[in-house]
Amino acid sequence: MGASPPSDSSSDESEYSETVLKFMTQILLEDNIEDKPCMFFDPLGLQITEKSFYDALGKKYPPSPNQYKPPSYINHNPDTKNRSHNGPKSNFTNTDPQLLGHLGEYNSSFSQATLPGHYVSQPDLQSNTDGLELLTRNFLLDTESMLQFRRGLEEASKFLPRSNQMVIDLERSNIRHRYNPGSFSKVSQQWEGEDQKKNHEREDVDLEEGRINKQPAVSAEENELSDLFDKVLLSTDALSTLGSDNKTYQQPQQANGGKNRAKKQRKKKDTVDLRTLLNLCAQAVSAGDNRTANELLKQIRKHSSPFGDGSQRLAHFFANGLEARLAGTGTGTQIFYTALVSKKISTYEIVNSYKVHLSVCPFKRMSVFFADQMIYKVAEKATSLHIIDFGIQYGFQWPILIQKLSKRSGGPPKLRITGIELPQPGFRPTEALEETGSRLGKYCERFNVPFEYHVIASQNWETIQIEDLKIDRNEMLAVNCLYRFKNLLDETFEIETSPRDAVLNLIRRMNPNIFVYSICNGAYNAPFFVTRFREALFHFSALYDIFDVTLPRENKERLLFEREFYGREAMNVIASEGLERVERPETYRQWQVRTKRAGFRQLPLDKDIVNILRSKLKEWHHEDFVLNEDNHWMLQGWKGRIVYASSCWVPA
């Protein structure tokens, strides 16, 4: 594939940066958005709702783990299956948070409510419980000593730590409520070297899975976009707008004194090594030493805060996860999390905070621009383009590609998008996804691009059949996934064929012209809790540090994003086990091996695209953002730590 002209790529990157933010503004301007739930992935939100229903029925939660997995739902309504840009109108209605990672992501259960006739279900694979139990027993046999305890289904095996533990006579503390912003200490931290000892504690695998959840469906009417907003969407002066946005967010921090003031504080006040405290607390929790864990948590709480610097905020949310784990997996975690998130957050607030995140953090914008450019090059002469998007959510990725296709010499191709997502709770599992198609259809109408849209709502993506995708071999086929593969289950649950490999094999059977995906580069998917905790600490340290440099501490969107995105994800990694733990990232090298094994060949990076992105990164963003290349992967990171990676593939 030939390289794109640098000038065109530069212009397109600028247009994307502007268009995606304005596309989000379109959502924020819609009526009644404050009353609509959010589509971003939330691993615990649905389970909390489930528990309230079980409490109302007087039944114990969680239910038996031997339940079936929920079916997939495919929209076969002729009015919505192939939605054209002038098709029937419907309101943009979201449902309970189900992301990304960041967005994005998977809840452990789904409503089995009676569905309209145009939804059909697919059988899903059953959990390999016997294989999982055998694997867990093998792990336990490799240890020198073992202490078995838990209640009921929450059996676990925990090992005593090899090092001496400080035991302090402290009674078990109650679950903490929302942190008082006026009580945190302004003590600085020094992030010293990490303990390099190998940990061999193996945590149990929790097989408990949520059950049926029913929520009333929400119906609404379509709101036409205003003429003023049309002008905003079509704005081409992207570079100046984006630059001013970044300056707006960064100037208040510079006025606060930045690093110089922090250095002065460190000279005057005692230092606290929060990283060491967190690791010691994780080891105590893993060993079942609740007294030591509670004492360490008390010290961490004293020196952490959701309103402090990056390290204090990180310690605060990691302490939440540790305390939830002490409360117990399953019901205890849900009760704790409900107490933490007592205030209902509107979709407007969530989307607005995510918009601010996109403005100051380039990772997702760079990944989307990279994917759109590669897809456009394949479809440069195609008469029909079919995009299968795993994890479409709001469809933020596609407005700039639609604009670019409309400018193609010879006219735009017919665009068909198949959006794959999790089914939403309620009686209309695909309603929010249909609204994404309706919004994209309006965008295509504005640019005279023929458009069709198809929805597949599936709880288990590996069970999707080729026939459901309606692939036409005369079309140019592109498969895309942005940061969502991390939520697929791995070999821990399906020893013979993991869901991750099954999805890659499904994509290989599609025989796409191009397969583009981006992943969250992380190593915190280890079954050993202490190892997983340490790796998560490294990863989230970089994410919280980014906001500490690019946004002022008092920025309310930053506070909300750190709590609702980073905080929830960290809670899931630390406090959950088994099927409840849905945050399972792997490194880009691991994904490279998986993808090659599935029968794909990796394409080299387009040097012009990478150079343009590197140039814009240097021009628009903080100098500590990095963009590198390795083995045909485009790597993005912060201060040398790789956070995200993108690559392109074709069938071998």
Automatic annotation (TrEMBL):
**Entry keyword annotation includes rRNA-binding:** no
Q: Which Pfam families match?
A: GRAS
- UniProt entry keywords in alphabetical sequence: Nucleus, Transcription, Transcription regulation
Q: Where located?
A: Nucleus
Region (VHIID) residue ranges read: 354-419
Where is region (Leucine repeat II (LRII)) located? 435-467
What residue spans carry the Basic residues bias annotation?
Answer: 260-269
So which domain of life are we looking at? Answer: Eukaryota
Provide ranges: composition bias, Polar residues: 66-77, 182-191, 242-255
Keyword Membrane listed? The answer is no
Q: Per the record, GO CC terms?
A: nucleus
Q: Where is motif VHIID found? A: 385-389
SAW: annotated segments: 575-650
What's the protein here called? Scarecrow-like protein 14
What's the source species for this entry? Carya illinoinensis (Pecan)
